[in-house]
Amino acid sequence: MSVILAARSVSKSYSSYSLTGRSAPKTVLRDVSLDIAAGESIALLGRSGSGKSTLGRLLLGFERPDGGSVAFEGESVGGLSGERYRHYRRSVQVVFQDSLGAVNPRHSIGRIIAEPLRHLTDLNEDARSERVRSLLAQVGLVPDDARKLPSQMSGGQLQRVCIARAIAPAPRLLVLDEAVSNLDLVLQMQMIALLRDLQARLKMAVLFITHDLRLVQLFCSRVIVLAEGRIQEDAPVTRGLALRSAEGRLLQDAILPARPVHRAPAFCD
Amino acid sequence: MSETLTIENLHVAAQHGHHDHVLVDGVSLTLRRGRILALVGASGCGKSMTCSGAQGVLPPGVRVTQGRVLHNDTTVAPERLRGRVVATILQNPRSAFNPIRTMADHARETLRAVGRFDGDWRSRTLEAFATVGLEDAESVLPLHAFEMSGGMLQRAMIALALLSDAPFLFADEPTTDLDLIVQARILDLLDELARRRNLGVLLITHDMGVVARLADEVAVMENGRIIERATTREIFDNPQRIATRELVEAHMSLYPEVA
């Protein structure tokens, strides 16, 4: 299968600045390589601070790696310009965790979803609003929602809006950075069902960034475990998945029980 | 007869122009020492407002319109409840601390608020930090919130709650913002402390995994009302109401190999 996006030995470190000056740089990614093929659904699994969101940001081109490179369809992202750059932007889209923070509160839902169409496609206004109507339907919203403001929608509805915006330019890869983590469980399950359906219909690759192995098993065919900025494990997701790396086992052991566990009774009554 | 805390017929409303929008609609609950009661429900069902309303710490424009809280059989005003009878830990520990105060400042403030501040404060604080697993407690005292990880902050918040020595604990989504590894450790800690200190806990959560791990009993909320209450096992095995069934089913779909 053809590789859409590849990280080639990428490294990244950050320094923090305060009144007393610049701190020693903290390395968050070390020599990470990853190929994402067309149509694949990959989970990037790790705890807080493992570097998973930073890797996502490098793949999305929001930041440049300090070492190594990110390649889109074989070309280094840093060297893209003009129509090639627009093509990359259209092809790789993202949904973040905080939907309310990811939209302009003064823009209508219709305008929010049409934004990538205005910048990244040549559709005229009529074609854009036609496309917005179809996108709203695809994510389970109604045409009238286009006139609403973000404050008039619930958290789950607004995350659907963010998904509609992300799939608007027909991306080849959708990055989901903890995109269901802010929702309650019932909504999380609805969102996973929606994303699975969209992925199958639109034949996109998906990079699902999460700390919750339970969601990985519902949604992904391959899991990459990240810890301290390095890939610890790269495994296919199978029924009865058992991770082998130390970090993978920690993440697996941390899964909450499915059924009530017996608590020792307290000494009262 | 064990010590109890009862929320009785609590009503909470938000003012919208000239009329009230009811957020909590007649909730009654009883906590017993040594028991963990989970209050569950979808986002916006009123579970956090129940917790804030009982303690008199509602956001502006929202108020208690009816109801009271009883400690054993005596009515207690919210300001006498907070810290003395009920300690609280919240979701998102990063915003729960004053950013320009150190952990030592927070400990002193907590002890003063409940009238327990004296020359011994430092050793009691260090003991509470050690109890919650903050290693090298001495070095934690001068830290600000921004110098600590989410897991450390949640431990510090639990330590401050313990300092008050209150018999009851309200835990509002205590692990929602933490990754699963940290979450598992914090839940172990809460379980152990509740048992060792014989705390009565009101655990607010939307995660039935947290309920399965920790709770003895469950109350399910929908549209500001409690629609079902039972033991945790009953709720999982034999949910009666549609909203309860939805919560359990959504949870069980995360465990395809069990279902």
CATH class of chain A: Alpha Beta
Number of continuous helical runs of chain B: 11
Beta-strand content of chain B: 25-35%
Strand order across the largest sheet of chain B: 6-7-8-3-9-10
**Per DSSP, what share of the residues of chain A sits in E-state strands of 2 or more residues?**
25-35%
CATH architecture of chain A: 3-Layer(aba) Sandwich
Order of adjacent strands in the largest pleated sheet of chain A: 8-9-10-5-11-12
- Cα separation of the termini of chain A: 65 Å
Overall pLDDT score of chain A: 92
Shape of chain A: globular
How far is the N terminus from the C terminus of chain B?
39 Å
Poorly predicted runs of chain A: none
Number of domains as seen in the coordinates of chain A: 1
Helicity of chain A, in percent?
25-40%
Structural class by SSE content of chain B:
alpha/beta
Outline of this structure?
The complex is a heterodimer of chains A (269) and B (259). With 269 residues, chain A is an alpha/beta fold. Chain A is built from 8 helices and 12 strands.
Describe this structure in words.
The complex is a heterodimer of chains A (269) and B (259). With 269 residues, chain A is α/β, with parallel strands linked by helices. Chain A has helices spanning 52-59, 82-91, 109-120, 125-138, 155-167, 185-202, 213-219, 246-253, and strands at 3-14, 17-18, 21-22, 26-37, 41-45, 67-72, 75-76, 92-95, 173-177, 205-210, 222-227, 230-236. Chain A has one domain: Rossmann fold (3-Layer(aba) Sandwich), CATH 3.40.50. Helices cover 33% and strands 26% of the residues of chain A. With 259 residues, chain B is of the alpha/beta class. Helix content of chain B is 38%, strand content 28%. Chain B starts with a strand and ends in a 7-residue tail after the last helix. At the A-B interface, helix 6, helix 7 and helix 8 of A face helix 8, helix 9, helix 10 and helix 11 of B.
